[in-house]
Design brief:
Rossmann fold, two-stranded antiparallel ribbon, 3 helices, about 30% helix
């Protein structure tokens, strides 16, 4: 049996991520933009990686065409893509760290 500390250490990235990839981050005012906006407005202290193959920049942050193009580790991925696409998107999130 794992100790509580082991369990907490494993899920720490979910509750205290150092970096977040927002996959399918929309440009402009769209429903999905609320996640990126909230991270920015609430002063998220970590690195934010917007992922959108059709944008070079979103909300003043460099965007990446694919998750695999992100240069650093990703602790948490928020997937905001149309129905039927999330499974493909989640397969593209490489295990890191």
């Amino acid at each position: 049996m794992k100790s509580d500390e082991d369990v907490i250490a494993k899920i720490n990235g979910l509750f205290h991520p150092r970096s977040v990839a927002v996959v399918g981050a929309p440009r402009g005012v769209k429903t999905g933009a609320v996640f990126l906006t909230a991270l920015l407005e609430q002063g998220f202290p970590g690195v934010i990686y917007p992922v959108n193959p059709q944008a070079e920049e979103i909300s003043g942050i460099k965007a990446y065409p694919r998750v695999a193009d992100i240069p650093g580790p990703v602790d948490l991925a928020i997937i905001l893509v149309p129905i039927g696409i999330p499974l493909r998107s989640s397969r593209n999130v490489p295990p890191r760290g």
